[in-house]
Amino acid sequence: SFLFGVLLMFIGYFYPYSSLSFQIYNLFLLLLFGIVFITINRNNFFFSFYMWLFFLLLFPKKPVLSILDSLLTNGINLSESFLVPTSFSFYHIINFFILFSISYKVFKSFKIDLNDLSKRLFLLFSSLFSAALISALYYNLYLSNFLSTNYLAQFDYLLHIYEGLIFSIVIFLGVKHKEDYHTIYKLLLLTLLITTSEFLLARYTGLLPDAVKYFSLNFRGAIRSIIHDGSIPTGMIIFYGLLGLLGLLNKNKRLIYVLPFFAITLFNTYERSSILLGLIAFGTYLFFRFRSYLSFNIAMTILGFLLFTILVLPKDGLSRLSDSFDDGFNANMDGSTIKVEGWFTFSSSGEREGALKRGMDVFYFNPFLGAGPGNLETLMSSSMVPMNANFHTMSNSEFQFYQKIATGNRPTDSHNLYVRIIAEYGIFGIMFLLFFVHIILFSIYNQKTVSNINSIGIAGIYAIFAYGFFQTFPISYPMLILFLSMITFKNQSIEQNNITA
Q: Taking 80 as the threshold, does the pLDDT of residue 310 lie above it?
């Protein structure tokens, strides 16, 4: 099925458009849907989630190009006037097939035994999905005459929320045992090994054809996987691979030798936000792994020493350290052209603040319904939305970027997941965030004993929470739910020890 899907993707992207070829293409597409539907409904819920996760991690996601005279481009009547390029790809068609098949499997039975956490998540995502449908309908009925409409982006974000809705049931029904999590860890580790090998071969050897190198390394010298277009989604996939690696370290200590290759590959995404994911996750994991070996006094002494070093060390000393880091790591790398200002200068922080405030303008424009799923970039670049930010408190770079966005000269998103949710779903987005964060924090607080599986879940959640302050894509609601299930997982041996005690 996977190979058949890849073949269809190739035909859909690159085969020239004609009415006959399009009919043949649709016939094969229906056949693929039948294969997916039958396969999912013949297997259990764990297989359903595993199949979805497999395609999320390993299926090519190259976006549709309006200049490409292909079956897929012409079949969906892609407009060339989009302000922001769509991320829609053949993967979204496959993903829709999988979700439809899983939904049929779930809802054909009215008697589903769910735990309290799964019920709360399902109700939460159902409410957000309903609000998203209403806001999307409002946008297309009343605002589309004044604003451009990116239907593919709307479909993408609606599907994104629906993933959270359906997998709040499937994950808790299907992923129940320690062995299930270890199977998922192995898949995550496999994606890490594939992406790392792809980068190392493309970057440091002449074994791969130039075409593969072109897709693996972008013009800035950073890695963009041949599967995942762009360094940001590649960084997220590498992050998932790290969690799989950490989850399996207990069973195979030799996997620690993979960590240096992971670090090299992650660094070469040239994305600070992706590196932040890895650092927070790895630091959280180490805390839980070594917490039992360190007394409170030793832990506080180490923490105090680190804080003292940071505070007391002269600023010019820190500056020299950062300069030497930049010189050492950028001197012989193709990516030095994009980090010439230095890794620790955070020169884009002012621009991100401007984007964040422009995103909040969209919320103030329609605080009840919001912009609707996938419409944030369009409204941020529209003169219909007033500029409500206080210009007097902005830095020069912040104001310039804010103005470029508002006048349509630099279309972009809010660079903040929480602002995107608030701006696109209005008051319903605020309620969703508050309840979702409450569920996660309450679940972590209730864990009196933390196992390896629990620590991986907490590491993943913490890292993505921090990542959300800097990026809106490609955070996955099903993966957040998976981490939440890891946090609440109770090992049978731990429960037995508690009963015996």
A: no
Segment 4-58, tens digit of pLDDT: 888 888 888 788 888 888 888 889 999 999 999 999 999 999 999 999 999 999 9
308 burial (CB, 10 Å; 0-12 / 13-18 / 19+) is exposed
The closest alpha carbon to 374, from 362, 384, 358, belongs to 362
Q: CA 170 → CA 173, 206, 291, 418, 479, distances in Å? A: 5, 44, 33, 25, 12
Cα separation, 321 vs 231, in Å, equals: 26
SS3 217: strand
Nearest to 64 by CA among 152, 154, 1: 152
Q: Which of 491, 483, 501, 496 is nearest to 184 (CA)?
A: 483
Nearest to 425 by CA among 107, 129, 82: 129
CA-CA distance, 280 to 275, in Å (whole number)? 9
Looking at 268-384, list the stretches that DSSP marks H as alpha helix, in order from N- to C-terminal side.
272-290, 296-312, 315-330, 349-365, 376-380
Asked if residue 477 has pLDDT above 80, the reply is yes
Report whether pLDDT(161) > 60.
yes
Residue of 271, 235, 272, 243 lying closest to 259 (CA atoms): 243
Q: What are phi and psi of 209, to 5 degrees?
A: -65, 155
Tokens found for residue 336: 């030095």
Amino acid identity of residue 347, one-letter, is S
Tokens 């041949």 belong to: 226
Handedness of CA 64, 69, 70, 73 (dihedral sign): positive
Cα dihedral sign, 225-230-231-235: negative
On the question of pLDDT at 305 being above 80, the answer is no
User: What pLDDT band is residue 84 in, cutting at 50, 70 and 90?
Assistant: very low
Longest dimension (CA), the chain: 75
